[in-house]
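for the recovery benchmark. tokens below, seq after
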């Protein structure tokens, strides 16, 4: 059973405060979890509680959330069996009492929820992926490596937030990671030769100014080939447009021009015809359900259409999307919804409905590697956790290396099977 819960304010990868929670069980097991934080956050995400006291961290302190853990959430779950995750999470939700976790903060609640799961796993003497996923969890996800950062994650002129490389043709996760890292370094060399800045964005990808968004895709194609790989066969491409960030008053400001949803959709159709693109995330704004449905009907048989800001890992918003056929994939971020139980419920609903589910980091991360274990536990086949560089990103990839090693002969790398729609 849960004995005591403690919390502290630590720093995330952007140097902003975040919550870390520590759980002590009655059997002496101690576990901790740290909470990530987004920049291009969806309007419908669970509430991230920040102090707003401008004298500390520009208002971004989380002392209130830390106090909520110690004074409210801890007492609400102390004495409960840590293995009863659904009971624990229900108690956390009840202690908050609001619809979007705005009373005590989703950051406070998530820290407790994840730390309890880790403690329960340790107490059962199981690795986290096996504790959550059971004895059949054995599939290593394809890493969606974000090697060019734009949008709200960079200071550059590039509108699209993430340009990703996916080593779908590798034999193992270890090999996939190597291909990605090699391509990342070749890309850097190419950019240097072309006089482009190799400074980095928030997720460890390069953040150059470029003449167009297509120019970023062209750079990736060149880098993949120069690294000795075949685009599409060995390494495929994916985008997170994060289009809500440049959507205002009914239109998208893209490459300096005002575009309609229909303009954007035909742009994506052209991209899918020109590049080995397997996945496009948040192509349209977070409220444009109809536009999403039209785009999915048009190109959803060829490419994964991922709802991030659209679904915000929320089973209710996902249910609406399923009804409207708004997408065919969901991005899964634990802090968008705020408990492990609700996260797993969103994944289960997605997978039962023929949607893929992609475990994802946030642009503000920590050394916590829970999502690596979750990606294997839910057999999602895909993980989005940044460039193959910078420790807060690489921590997740390194954890997947450990899991693959631990699984030994039982390990299977998802590879192309994670993208049933991709024909390129
Ligand atoms: P965020 O970006 O963590 O800044 O929201 C990640 C994403 O949009 O997928
Ligand atoms: Zn996104």
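predicted aa per position
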């Amino acid at each position: 059973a849960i004995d005591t819960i403690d919390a502290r304010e630590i720093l995330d990868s952007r140097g902003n405060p975040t919550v870390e929670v520590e759980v002590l069980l009655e059997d002496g097991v101690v576990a901790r979890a740290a909470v990530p934080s987004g920049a291009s956050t969806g309007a419908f995400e669970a509430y991230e509680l920040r102090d707003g006291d401008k004298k500390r961290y520009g208002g971004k302190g989380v002392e209130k959330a830390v106090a909520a853990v110690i004074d409210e959430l801890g007492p609400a779950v102390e004495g409960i069996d840590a293995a009863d995750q659904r009971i624990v999470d229900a108690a956390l939700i009840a202690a908050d009492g609001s619809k979007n976790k705005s009373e005590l903060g989703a950051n406070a609640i998530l820290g407790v929820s994840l730390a309890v799961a880790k403690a329960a796993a340790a107490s059962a003497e199981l690795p986290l992926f096996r504790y959550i996923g059971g004895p059949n969890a054995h599939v290593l996800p394809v890493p969606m490596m974000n090697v060019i950062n734009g949008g709200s994650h960079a200071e550059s002129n590039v509108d699209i937030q993430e340009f990703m490389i996916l080593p779908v043709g590798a034999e193992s996760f270890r090999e996939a990671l190597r291909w990605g890292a090699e391509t990342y370094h070749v890309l850097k060399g190419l950019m240097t030769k072309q006089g482009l800045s190799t400074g980095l964005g928030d997720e460890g990808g390069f953040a150059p100014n470029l003449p167009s968004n297509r120019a970023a895709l062209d750079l990736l194609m060149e880098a993949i080939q120069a690294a000795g790989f075949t685009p599409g066969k060995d390494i495929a491409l994916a985008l997170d447009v994060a289009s809500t960030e440049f959507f205002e008053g009914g239109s998208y400001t893209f490459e300096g021009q005002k575009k309609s949803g229909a303009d954007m959709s035909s742009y994506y159709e052209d991209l899918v015809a020109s590049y080995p693109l397997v996945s496009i995330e948040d192509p349209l704004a977070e409220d444009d359900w109809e536009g999403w449905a039209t785009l999915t009907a048009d190109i959803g048989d060829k490419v994964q259409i991922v709802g991030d800001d659209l679904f915000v890992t929320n089973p209710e918003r996902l249910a609406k999307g399923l009804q409207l056929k708004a997408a065919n994939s969901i991005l899964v971020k634990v802090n968008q919804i705020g408990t492990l139980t609700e996260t797993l419920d969103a994944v289960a609903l997605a997978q039962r409905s023929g949607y893929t589910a992609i475990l994802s980091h946030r642009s503000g991360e920590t050394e916590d590697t829970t999502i690596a274990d979750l990606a294997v536990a839910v057999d999602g086949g895909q993980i989005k956790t940044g460039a193959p560089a910078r420790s807060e990103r690489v921590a997740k990839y390194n954890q997947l290396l450990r899991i693959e090693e631990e699984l030994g002969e039982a390990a299977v790398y998802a590879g192309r099977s994670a993208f049933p729609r991709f024909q390129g």
